[in-house]
Design brief:
The chain is mainly α and about 130 residues long. The chain has one domain. Helices cover about 70% and strands about 0% of the residues. The longest helix is centred in the middle third of the chain and has 32 residues. The protein is elongated and about 75 Å long. About 5% of the residues have low confidence.
Length: about 130
């Protein structure tokens, strides 16, 4: 019973997705092939970009600059969104955009938290000399 339900979902989703795409194309006046072409081009671009970024994140994790799990989760999220963009349909594109808008890894790219996160083992010390003025 579970197998039949899973099979119905897997086969029914592309049909519903294409139906929604055709309806949105009729409503907006934009041809269906334009919706599909934009989706495929953006999916390929996202996957190409993530391939290079994954390499850089993995090397940074091996050096100890970043945690490994954070890079793997972020890359997995972007790869899944890229594959969803490659699927024909507006619904899968909206799911992909929702995945891309998830607020993961926000602290690693902004401000002092990002600089502290890139230091080995998260140490937050500044080396230097000081002199007391009276």
């Amino acid at each position: 019973m579970r197998f039949v339900l899973l099979l119905a979902i897997l086969l029914g989703f592309p049909v519903v997705d294409l139906y929604a795409t055709v309806r949105i194309a009729q409503w907006s006046g934009v041809p269906v092939w334009v919706w599909l072409a934009i989706s495929v081009v953006s999916g390929i671009a996202l996957l190409r970009n993530e391939r290079l970024a994954f390499r850089a994140r993995t090397l940074a994790a091996l050096r100890g600059d970043e945690p490994l799990l954070r890079g793997v989760v972020d890359s997995g999220r972007k790869v899944l969104a890229g594959f969803l963009l490659l699927l024909p349909g507006v619904v899968s594109d909206l799911i992909a955009l929702a995945l891309l808008m998830l607020p993961l890894n926000v602290g690693s790219a902004f401000g002092a938290a990002g600089a502290a996160a890139r230091t080995p083992f998260g140490r937050r010390s500044i080396d230097g000399e000081y002199r007391r003025l009276e």
